[in-house]
Amino acid sequence: MPTDPLRLSGNGIDIELPVMEGSVGPKVVDIRKFYAETGMFTFDPGFTATASCESQITYIDGDLGELQYRGFPIEQLAEHSDFMEVCYILLFGELPNTAEKEKFLSDITNHTMVHEQLHRFFSGFRRDAHPMAIMVGVVGALAAFYHDSTDINDPHQRMVASYRLIAKIPTIASMAYKYSVGQPFVYPDNSLSYAGNFLKMMFSVPATPYIVNPTLERAMDLIFILHADHEQNASTSTVRLAGSSGANPFACIAAGIACLWGPAHGGANEACLNMLEEIATVDRIPEFVARAKDKADPFRLMGFGHRVYKNFDPRATVMRDTAHEVLEELGVDDPLFDVAMELEKIALEDPYFVEKKLYPNVDFYSGIILRAMGFPTSMFTVLFAVARTSGWVSQWKEMVEDPRQKIGRPRQLFTGTPKRDFVQMADR
Ligand code: SDX
User: Fold this and answer.
1) Is 306 a catalytic residue?
2) What is the reported pTM?
3) Residues 202-229: pLDDT tens digits?
4) Which residue minimizes the CA distance to atom 32 of ligand 1?
């Protein structure tokens, strides 16, 4: 919605820039004509103050520590909803009625198997390959299997590709784990919930029956809900940028997985648990907090800080409560949880963290829960990718359906060598 324009003058220019207002959140200055009218680019490495698109999916208020999917607060979805319903909300924008929810669940459930030939991709990996490397490769390979759902201009094919990705990502994730431990792949069980089926594909073996633990099933479903979408984060922006060229949707999601893997982003849950293990005991926390504050030391407290949240990450709060429940249910007395609780307390009192508004983020407690549930640390980011696939496909679909969508092509501030002539070898 346009509001009063912004006048910009100085450096030889005097222009008015349109200002647009969303339904909530900061207004935006429309700079689409800025270069044509001024001959200048704007400069914002890391896009700290740049809106890359218009979206109606997820809203974050970093100062208040609020997160909403299609307007529904994450706390309410965590308490009252389930991951399949959240996938529906992210894709379609509204809560499903009973029939719509049953149809969606059936559509996803009946797409959980992967092409049998996909199994062969795994044997090309070393057994000790990081499962995120396997996810990038195998999800990218889906681009070669589904030629009937890659015309992104066909709404039906867009939907089929989205459903296939949501349905198959847990199957591929569990296969990456099974391959790493030398156990046989477990086929999906369509009688189970999305979370229950994933736990069974991960932890069951042919030799013994597997009963899904309802507490772990609920915790898994909750972790998927909390990680489903998060506005225009690095991996979502990667999916949007890849998709803006019209690329194959499966390849776009593989690009998102690659970006999520970084320790500054989704890889932080694995890095955070490794950090807690390195700290090991409460009495060593001050040493690590000092390192995190030391400009000369590249070490950062994994699981703390966020580009947007300058308050508690609301997902971390829910995750902390879930950690208590899971550890109690499993009768696990994990000293790392005590270290995490004490680290949170110390960091939140330390002036450095208070001044820089560095709070625990979604990755801080997830590692504790996942470790208690039996997931190896190397699988933590894979689980993040399983959940975030629902957000990625929803954002990708919104981008493709946006009539103003153009290929993403940022510019630069060039500080290299200006034009010069080539010098022959004899003259150098
Ligand atoms: C996710 O974008 C999303 O929405 C991501 C995500 C999602 O759902 O998609 O929420 C998931 O990626 C959560 C973040 C997980 N990453 C980590 O926990 C890694 C540790 N955190 C940092 O790497 C950092 O906080 C970032 C990357 C998360 C945010 O970095 P920014 O916004 O680029 O901020 P910055 O690096 O410029 O830091 C600002 C200041 C700096 O000090 P000064 O240069 O101003 O003196 O805060 C300091 C930083 O040195 N700082 C930290 C710190 N994080 C920032 N110091 C110590 N420990 C930290 N963790």
Assistant:
1) yes
2) 0.94
3) 999 999 999 999 999 999 999 999 999 9
4) 307
